[in-house]
């Protein structure tokens, strides 16, 4: 992916899953990294791997996107030589539970809104002014096929990802007169810790989500992020949907017996 080398990329939720996958692909392509997540020990390990293997600068810092003061500390701690960020990947996000709306756990709904929606607003507010000032920057929001279509049991999660779609679209229109590029990536089934988190650690339920199907990997999604960012400056990939070959919509999945 020509064009990533020497760029400075911020990734939220970088300690696992798609975020970690993006960090790896960007490191392989010589982008410097600013990685945030709550689990700093995992970021430490990732930093060690990536900086030695690829000779890039990797800055890591604790980040809870639901806590504005945590976001302030994260931004303030970025070293001088990495302050002119080129790429922002809003990746931190989660699903909690599969429940019909009449039985939704409102704490779970609230937490999804805090991370998936308010978290993106908070991070955008932190980095967008710099992008506008420098007239430069790519913003990639990791949305979901759940942002394009609601499905039974997903009212909370789907609502948050529809919100991500709405804010991404509004932002793209706001910066149309600038060189900024705004992209939403909507993955379908990706095998990560996503389903373990969604089902509160129930391994059986989590495994069933990917049963009989070759799900996407974090690396598959990470490749698309690298593709989007490495297009020539006049090319803006606005929306990108990626699903396994045997998935056609959130609930249209062909599973081998
Ligand atoms: C994850 C995809 O279909 O589980 O965002 O909502 S889905």
- Shape call: globular
End-to-end Cα distance, whole Å, is 38 Å
Annotated CATH homologous superfamily: NAD(P)-binding Rossmann-like Domain
Strand arrangement within the widest β-sheet reads 3-2-1-4-5-6-7
Q: If you compute it from the alpha carbons, what radius of gyration comes out, rounded to the nearest whole angstrom?
A: 18 Å
Instruction: Assign the CATH architecture.
Output: 3-Layer(aba) Sandwich
- The multimeric state of the shown protein is single chain
Helix fraction bin: 40-55%
Number of domains: 1
Provide the residue-averaged pLDDT.
97
Which spans of ≥5 residues are poorly predicted at pLDDT below 50?
A: none
| Main CATH class | Alpha Beta
Query: How many β-strand runs?
Result: 9
SSE string: EHEHEHEHEHEHHHEEE
Here the CATH topology equals Rossmann fold
What structural class do the secondary elements suggest? alpha/beta
Q: Keywords, please?
A:
single chain, 257 residues, two-stranded antiparallel sheet, globular, binds 2-hydroxyethylsulfonic acid, NAD(P)-bd_dom_sf, oxidoreductase activity, acting on the CH-OH group of donors, NAD or NADP as acceptor, SDR_fam
Description:
Pfam families: adh_short. Belongs to the short-chain dehydrogenases/reductases (SDR) family. It comes from Planoprotostelium fungivorum. The termini are far apart. It is built from eight helices and nine strands. It has helices spanning 17-28, 40-54, 68-77, 106-134, 155-174, 194-198, 203-209, 218-229, and strands at 8-12, 32-37, 58-62, 87-90, 138-142, 181-187, 239-242, 247-249, 252-253. The mean pLDDT is 97. The protein has a single domain (8-253), classed as 3-Layer(aba) Sandwich (Rossmann fold), CATH 3.40.50.720. Helix 1 packs across helix 8, helix 3 (68-77) packs parallel to helix 4 (106-134) and helix 4 runs parallel beside helix 5. It is 43% helix and 16% strand. By secondary structure, the chain is α/β, with parallel strands linked by helices. The strands form two sheets. It has a seven-stranded parallel sheet with strand order 3-2-1-4-5-6-7, with helices on both faces. 2-hydroxyethylsulfonic acid is lined by residues 144-146, 154, 188, 250.
């Amino acid at each position: 992916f020509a064009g990533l080398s020497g760029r400075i990329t911020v990734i939220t939720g970088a300690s696992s899953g798609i975020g970690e996958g993006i960090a790896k692909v960007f490191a392989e392509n010589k982008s410097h990294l600013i990685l945030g997540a709550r689990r700093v020990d995992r970021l430490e390990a990732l930093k060690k791997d990536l900086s030695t293997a690829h000779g890039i600068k990797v800055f890591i810092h604790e980040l809870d996107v639901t806590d504005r003061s945590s976001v302030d500390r994260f931004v303030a701690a970025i070293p001088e030589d990495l302050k002119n960020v080129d790429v922002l990947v809003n990746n931190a996000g989660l699903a909690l539970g599969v429940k019909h709306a009449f039985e939704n756990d409102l704490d779970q709904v609230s937490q999804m809104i805090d991370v998936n929606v308010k978290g993106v607003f908070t991070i955008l507010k932190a980095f967008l002014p710099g992008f506008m000032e420098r007239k430069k920057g790519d913003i990639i929001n990791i949305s979901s096929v759940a942002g394009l279509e609601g499905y039974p049991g997903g009212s909370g999660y789907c609502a948050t990802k529809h919100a991500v779609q709405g804010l991404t679209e509004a932002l793209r229109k706001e910066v149309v007169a600038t060189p900024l590029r705004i992209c939403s990536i909507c993955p379908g089934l990706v095998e990560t810790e996503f389903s373990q988190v969604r089902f509160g650690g129930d391994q059986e339920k989590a495994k069933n989500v990917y049963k009989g199907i070759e799900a996407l990997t974090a690396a598959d999604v990470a490749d698309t992020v690298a593709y989007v960012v490495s297009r020539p400056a006049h090319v803006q990939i606005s929306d990108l949907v990626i699903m396994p070959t045997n998935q056609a919509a959130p609930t249209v999945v062909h599973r081998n017996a």
